């Protein structure tokens, strides 16, 4: 059985990382049996220094994009088999928007927004012994801020970052329209990926600009509910 190495539960979700949740959601949607191995210590074994990674018949694969490619090559591309070439291209563009653009808005919200940071600090570091839990969080937060600046999004104001997120969410909402899933009644890879990113900002109970923005878009909230009830209601 495939082993999925991730961080661990996050409210009613299996993981706080959209990339870990993406792989989890995809395998559930396809129906591939897997075992979750949670824990921050998994980072020590991660082939690329990040989570998630999977172990499949002794083979270790890191990075969610390459994990999904491996799963499709080995087990078939059941979710996207009915899509046209044009639809697959559209899905790829949306997935890259989430992975490469919207992701950084989520990181900024969680680690830099003062309305969210206390929640993230307590969730991730409260179990650590003193004085580590006092010293380590601000160091990591400063490191994240540096990464965001180097990536580019950290050079923008909070209002500008929120506008970037707004445009991405509006594009998703407009494309979803009144459909239950992005290409109609059938779940595809795009649905698993979109769920991973959207649930991570809709499900957590705290209030902040990004989460409130996502919760203000009814069809995206309904989409998260549809996907979660289908694949996570028994968990």
Description:
There is one protein chain. This protein has a 4-stranded mixed beta sheet with strand order 2-1-3-4, covered by helices on one side. β1, α1 and β2 form a beta-alpha-beta unit. The chain has 2 domains: 74 residues, Glutaredoxin (3-Layer(aba) Sandwich); 147 residues, Up-down Bundle (Glutathione S-transferase Yfyf (Class Pi), Chain A, domain 2). Helices cover 57% and strands 8% of the residues. The longest helix is centred in the middle third of the chain and has 27 residues. It has 235 residues and is an alpha+beta fold. The mean pLDDT is 96. The protein is built from 9 helices and 4 strands, in the order βαβββαααααααα. It is globular.
Care to give the gist of this entry?
By secondary structure, the chain is α+β, with helices and mostly antiparallel strands.
DSSP strand tally: 4
Gyration radius (Cα, Å) is 18 Å
Count of helical stretches: 9
CATH topology assignment of the largest domain: Glutathione S-transferase Yfyf (Class Pi), Chain A, domain 2
| Alpha-beta classification | alpha+beta
Mean pLDDT: 96
What letter string, H or E per element, gives the SSE order?
EHEEEHHHHHHHH
C-alpha geometry: globular
The biggest beta sheet is recorded as:
4 strands, mixed
In spatial order, strands of the major sheet run 2-1-3-4
State the domain count: 2
Helix content: 55-70%
The span between the termini is: 19 Å
CATH architecture of the largest domain: Up-down Bundle
Q: How would you describe the oligomerization state of the chains in this entry?
A: single chain
CATH top-level class of the largest domain:
Mainly Alpha
What is the strand content?
A: 5-15%
Unreliable runs? none
């Amino acid at each position: 059985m495939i082993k999925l190495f991730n961080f661990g539960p996050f409210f009613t979700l299996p993981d706080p990382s959209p990339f870990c949740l993406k792989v989890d959601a995809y395998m559930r949607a396809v129906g591939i049996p897997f075992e979750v191995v949670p824990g921050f210590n998994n980072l020590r074994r991660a082939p690329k220094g990040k989570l998630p990674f999977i172990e499949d018949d002794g083979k270790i694969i890191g990075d969610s994009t390459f994990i999904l490619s491996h799963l499709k090559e080995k087990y078939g591309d059941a979710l996207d088999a009915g899509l046209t070439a044009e639809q697959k291209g559209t899905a790829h563009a949306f997935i890259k928007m989430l992975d490469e653009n919207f992701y950084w808005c989520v990181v900024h919200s969680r680690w830099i927004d003062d309305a969210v940071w206390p929640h993230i600090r307590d969730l991730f570091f409260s179990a650590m012994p003193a004085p580590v839990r006092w010293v380590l969080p601000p160091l990591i937060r400063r490191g994240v801020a540096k990464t965001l600046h180097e990536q580019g999004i950290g050079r923008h104001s909070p209002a500008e970052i929120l506008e970037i997120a707004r445009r991405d969410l509006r594009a998703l909402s407009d494309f979803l329209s009144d459909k239950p899933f992005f290409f109609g009644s059938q779940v595809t890879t795009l649905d698993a990926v979109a769920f991973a990113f959207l649930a991570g900002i809709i499900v957590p109970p705290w209030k902040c600009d990004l989460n409130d923005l996502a919760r203000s878009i009814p069809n995206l909230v309904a989409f998260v509910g549809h996907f979660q009830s289908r694949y996570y209601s028994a968990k």
